[in-house]
Write a structure and sequence with these properties.
Blueprint lengths: L12 H21 L9 H12 L9 E2 H11 L5 H10 L11 E4 L17 E4 L1 H7 L9 E3 L6 E3 L8 H5 L1 E4 L4 E4 L4 H13 L1 H5 L5 H5 L12 E3 L2 H9 L1 E7 L1 E6 L5 E7 L6 H13 L6 E6 L7 E5 L5 H11 L3 E7 L1 E4 L2 E4 L2 H42 L1 H10 L3 H12 L3 H8 L8 H26 L1 H19 L6 E3 L7 H4 L4 E7 L3 E6 H8 L16 E8 L3 E6 L3 E6 L13 E2 H4 L8 E7 L7 E6 L3 E6 L11 E2 L9 E7 L4 E6 L3 E6 L13 E2 L9 E6 L5 E6 L3 E6 L13 E2 L10 E7 L4 E6 L4 E5 L13 E2 L9 E7 L2 H9 L24
Parallel strand pairs: 8-17
Antiparallel strand pairs: 1-3, 2-3, 4-5, 6-7, 8-9, 9-14, 10-11, 11-13, 12-13, 15-16, 18-19, 18-20, 19-23, 21-22, 21-24, 22-27, 25-26, 25-28, 26-31, 29-30, 29-32, 30-35, 33-34, 33-36, 34-39, 37-38, 37-40
Helix pairs in contact: 2-3, 3-4, 7-18, 13-16, 13-17, 13-18, 14-15, 15-16, 17-18
Length: 844
């Protein structure tokens, strides 16, 4: 029954339930369960921190009972249950739950074993120093304020957040129809990534998540309990999409005890794992005989975790540790869902998007703070300007005030005569007599000049977004310096992600590269065993006109850099080169590398490590040279990277490895040469053109580049089969960029110079002609002659034939020397034993 005063309306039950459910769910999502992307706090956390600030519970003040904080929060900001408020406060004080605790707790706040905290009437708390960074500048209009639930006071909608709390401490929460689970990260790494994003505006604004760039700084989750994260791919997944499943493991080591026995010691456990439950589960598995070989399990933990597992004599610790990972929470997963409130709406965001939210928030905070400080400074300057007027006309001001019947009349007279504002007049009337002394007048003048300077600075900041971002960076770097610490969680490869080099033994091998472009490696032990019955120079299958041009020892973990004539470089590990016997001809380089159409190999360099102590010097046919630090090539791509920017009509013809104090010789086809020190070239980046090494005449081109070796000679050869050797001493040092001096007197008899090599008496060379003739010649048979001579005949040519290439050949003696080398892995790049062909026809 209803009365006449009641108003009844007909509604659809389904519609009403849908509306009520949506209202409820949005209330839970926005107002309770999910963190804000800007400060990383849920409303409950934010209200607790704000209430503690209002109570004066700063890090340098005395502790107060948590009951005081809970009562303040319930009475003014958060009308929910006291248990919910206290549980939230306790979690923010637990160092095993928070990577950077926000509350400094005093008393029993629970334990990692799952022990509950004491009641709030017994415990005490105050803000941690890092929490004050979240709350800093609240009184400078940096964020919007909103009325509390009964509109008796106000509270902040979001905190200024001087550090990226959401990613630093993580967050977890279950709303209606959605949940968030964000892992904690290392503060130093986060700040470095944010600074990189600020400095790279294009990266910040485009749609590319820049996973590889961000992972240079942020390695992955950094849990407060340490442990290990297994696998890089899940980290990449949640960095890219905001979702992923991260596998966590505890850390276990092995200790020897008396009697020759060993025991397993667990020192770190996965995040959110209850230590007492873990010990109990291990004991149950032992009792159920799922894990055998364990005689005792003890918890010797204090503030640091130490779980001791004793084993029977002869048991293999690795096996038992793997069983612990399989059957217990020594291995657990963390399902990442990076869901947060952005612009009043819940949103799953990737790593870059979350960082961008924080950067934009800090930009707004710094801008609003600067505007507030500017207004205050301008207000103070306005008052000081009134003081200056009064002090300049002091006698008249005193006379007006003395002759006025009351304050209001004096105020009106001052405003009318000196065009003062009401505020200036009030300030002047409130001046104290001691401020009229000479010293105080000087203070007012100095304060005025200082505040004018400050106003200019503040206006400059507001006018420049770059300056605002510079302040964001500076303040973050200060926080990094003050609160940053080392990473606790180790990132290790998962079983399926173990790097190939970790599975390949770092051992010596012999690498063979032929003139025709075939490459292979052979294990040293196999190489020597086969040599006992060996025949021929190399004993490998090759085309009749092909020959071994490079043979050197290397480690399987070394790199080989292949430079192409178009200026690209491809880097391969030695273990990627086919492991073949001595009789095999090898694999074509073109099939080993992802060469582009028309690309030819111009040079190759063997390197152990891409250190910044060494350099590469490159030369093009037109005489351009470039020096680049070896470390620039530390991150190669499978499809190659630019080694030198080649101008149209030019091509790379040679590359040499230098130590920073070498001298270089360039030789041209017209018989000119130039010798200069590599210090004449500054280090340049990869994708640059270079500088002049030698200025070639019309129709001339560079055909050789060599490193000066006082114990060797420079061999040059002409296309008509004429050649000679000359001591390096005959080539005086010059400045780069000149036309050079004669290295070989060219003419009809010699023809153009086709190549130049640094050789010793023990070397052999191969001469190749246009019509396919090849002649092998020992270097010692070629006499040493002066620079300005033609030389001697190296090869007899048929009519119409020409010499097109010269190359060193691996001799039997060199092969024996290589076999006797001990190719132990070296931390430094290998010497430039393998450098590339000096001319196009020579390129494989």
């Amino acid at each position: 029954m209803y009365t006449a005063n009641e108003k009844i309306s007909t509604v659809n039950v389904a519609d009403e339930m849908q509306k009520a459910y949506i209202d409820y769910s949005m209330s839970v999502i926005i107002g309770r369960a999910l963190p804000d992307a800007r400060d990383g706090l849920k409303p409950g956390n934010r209200r607790i921190l704000y209430a503690m600030r209002e109570l004066g519970l700063l890090s340098n003040r005395a502790y107060k009972k948590c009951a005081t904080v809970v009562g303040e929060v319930l009475g003014k900001y958060h009308p929910h249950g006291d248990a919910a408020v206290y549980d939230t406060l306790v979690r923010m004080a637990q160092p095993w739950a928070m990577r950077y605790p926000l509350i400094d707790g005093h008393g029993n706040f629970g334990s990692v074993d799952g022990d509950p905290p004491a009641a709030y009437r017994y415990t005490e708390s105050r803000l941690h120093k890092i929490a004050e960074v979240l709350l800093a500048d609240l009184d400078k209009n940096t964020v919007d304020m909103q009325p509390n639930f009964d509109e008796s006071t106000v509270e902040p909608k979001v905190l200024p957040a001087g550090f990226p709390n959401l990613l630093a401490n993580g967050s977890t929460g279950i709303a209606v129809g959605m949940a968030t689970n964000i892992p904690p990260h290392n503060l130093r790494e986060l700040v470095d990534a944010i600074c990189w994003l600020i400095d790279n505006q294009n990266a910040r604004e485009d749609n590319d998540p820049h996973i590889e760039d961000l992972m240079k700084f942020i390695k992955g989750p950094d849990f407060p309990t340490g442990g290990m994260v297994c696998g890089v791919q899940p980290i990449i997944d949640y960095f890219k999409t905001g979702r992923g499943i991260v596998k966590m493991r505890g850390k276990a080591g092995v200790e020897e005890v008396k009697g020759g026995k060993e025991q397993i010691v667990i020192t770190e456990i996965p995040y959110n794992v209850n230590r007492a439950v873990l010990v109990e589960s291990i004991a149950n598995l032992v009792n159920e005989k799922k894990i055998q070989g364990i005689t005792d399990v003890r918890d010797e933990s204090d503030e640091q975790t130490r779980l001791v597992i004793e084993m029977r004599r002869g048991e293999i610790p690795k096996v038992i540790i793997n069983q612990l990972y399989k059957y217990t929470q020594m291995e657990a997963t963390f399902g990442v869902i990076m869901l947060a409130i952005d612009g009043g709406r819940p949103k799953v965001m990737n790593m870059k998007a979350l960082l961008n939210c924080y950067i934009e928030h800090r930009r707004v905070v710094i801008y609003r703070r600067t505007a507030f400080e500017l207004k205050e400074a301008e207000d103070r300057a306005h008052i000081l300007e009134g003081y200056r007027i009064a002090l300049d006309n002091l006698d008249d001001f005193v006379k007006i005030i003395r002759e006025s019947p009351n304050r209001d009349v004096a105020k009106v007279k001052l405003i009318e005569k000196y065009e003062l504002s009401t505020r200036q007049a009030d300030a002047i009337l409130e001046m104290r007599l001691y401020q009229l002394t000479g010293l105080e007048r000087d203070k007012i003048e100095k304060e005025y000049l200082d505040i004018i300077k400050k106003i200019e600075e503040l206006r400059g900041i507001l006018a420049s977004e770059r300056k605002v971002f510079d302040i964001v960076k500076k303040e973050l770097l200060d926080v990094r310096e003050k609160f940053g610490d080392d990473r606790r969680t180790e990132i290790i490869p998962d079983e399926g992600e173990i790097a190939l080099e970790d599975m390949i033994k770092d051992e010596g091998c012999v690498v063979t590269i032929t003139h025709g472009g075939y490459v292979k490696r052979t294990n040293v032990s196999s190489y020597r065993a086969q040599r006992r019955g060996g025949k021929g120079v190399i004993g490998m299958e090759a085309k009749e006109e092909d020959f071994v041009e490079h043979l050197f020892t290397a480690s399987t973990h070394d790199h080989i850099m292949f430079f192409t004539a178009s200026g690209r470089v491809y880097v391969e590990r030695v273990y990627d080169i086919p492991d073949l016997g001595r009789a095999a001809k090898g694999k074509a380089i073109a099939n080993l590398l992802e060469l582009r159409e028309g690309e030819k190999i111009a040079a190759l360099i063997r390197v152990r490590e891409f250190t910044d102590k060494f350099h590469l010097v490159m030369a093009t046919e037109k005489g351009i040279v470039k020096k680049t630090n070896l470390s620039e090539y530390a991150n190669p791509r499978k499809g190659g990277v630019i080694a030198i920017q080649i101008e149209e009509g030019d091509r790379l013809m040679g590359v040499k490895f230098t130590e920073g104090n070498n001298e270089v010789v360039l030789v041209t086809s017209n018989g000119m040469s130039i010798r200069f020190h590599e210090e004449d070239m500054r280090d340049q980046g990869r994708a640059t053109v270079g500088v002049w090494g030698i200025r070639c005449e019309e129709g001339d081109k560079v055909v050789g580049i060599e490193i000066v070796n006082p114990s060797a000679t420079l061999l040059v050869a002409g296309e008509n089969g004429i050649g000679k050797r000359t001591d390096f001493e005959e080539y005086r040092k010059q400045s780069r960029g000149g036309k050079g001096i004669i290295t070989m007197k060219t003419g009809d008899k010699t023809g153009k110079v086709i190549g130049a090599l640094s050789v010793t008496d023990n070397d052999e060379i191969m001469l190749s002609t246009q019509q396919g003739q090849t002649v092998r010649c020992p270097v010692k048979d070629i006499r040493v002659a002066g620079r300005n001579t033609m030389g001697v005949k190296l090869i007899g040519l048929d009519e119409g034939d020409k010499l097109v290439a010269i190359a060193k050949v691996v001799s039997e003696q060199q092969e024996a020397e290589v076999e006797n080398e001990k190719p132990a892995p070296s931390p430094q790049p290998s010497p430039p034993a393998a450098s590339g062909p000096p001319a196009e026809d020579k390129a494989p």
